Amino acid sequence: MEKIVSAIAAPNIALIKYWGKRDNLLKLPLNDSISMTLDAGTLASTTTILLSDGLPRDIFVLNGQRVQDAHIAEALKLMRARLAHDHPLIDSPVLLISSNNFPTSAGIASSASGFAALAKAMGGALGIDDLRELSILARLGSGSASRSIFGGFAKWKTGKREDGEDSFAAQIAPSSHWPDLVDVIAVADAGKKKVSSKMGMERTVDTSELFDCRIKHMPASVRRVETAILENDFDALGEEIMKDSNSMHATMLESWPPVMYMNDVSRSVIEAVHEYNADAGEIRAAYTFDAGPNAHIITTQDESAKVRAMLKKISGVQKLFVSPIGEGAKSVAPDRKLAENTLKMLKINVSLD
Ligand code: DP6
User: Fold this and answer.
1) Atom 4, ligand 1: residue with shortest CA distance
2) Ligand 1: does its nearest atom lie under 6 Å from the Cβ of 143?
């Protein structure tokens, strides 16, 4: 028995950040987080999986290169432990072929889109379409991926249970609720980060005293962002997301040894955005930074050209991507040709009839 499926998913930008886990293996968070899904036409991961007993072992091909990837191997192990009883096909070896339509070297996170696409593809192969289950499967890969299952705005709940069954994302509002929001991404450093988010989070939870204070204030921030989204209140949304990003990076800086993802270019962007809003007399652009130096500026379609012009003037900004708000992970036609060509490249003989 064999199965080929393909799926596509976009990254999401966290408006209220997930930073810190209560369970490192199951990727259970210490706070609720909220995100906006980006547009798969601009940034996306496309993943094809072949499940077949004819394969010698699990094989991962990322952006055309065969790789050994402990993170993907662990995610598959967790998915198998969860699903093998009801879906024995998942125990077959898998050929996973995944690629991003944006340069991986651009320094834009791909784990959210990558694991959301993998969860969606696995769901397609096994006949699982329940969004809550897909969100949990994506979470087993990377916490933030749980939100990329959904389009528009999504909230991932902390949950209370040790087994994580109540920790999954759900949609707050579809993209049509606020279609003119965009994320202007200013690449400030395209290199690979020195401290992974996994390590950075662990260090923050273990050593930062500010972190407890952040966690205490999270429920109120989450409520304010949710309300701002539901009321299409850009001013309130902008202020909250900038404060939340600053709060997360403050806890990192206060960790020991400090975790620093922002660089001088990131800090110039922060200053420029505050000046831009001060000139406008209201918040028209809001920055947020994930675990990296690249700035995400949330603004509206109308404002986007002016925001881009402002960012281009900042020395050290290498490249701009503009992504509208987008849709959740979706299945696409199985890419048999890609699977066949990849098997040929790997010199593995499995017939795909
Ligand atoms: C700063 O989801 O990459 O982007 O669960 O360890 O894989 P793991 O972490 P990951 O962390 C994302 C952190 C963040 C904030 C966010 O996306 O909410």
Assistant:
1) 290
2) yes
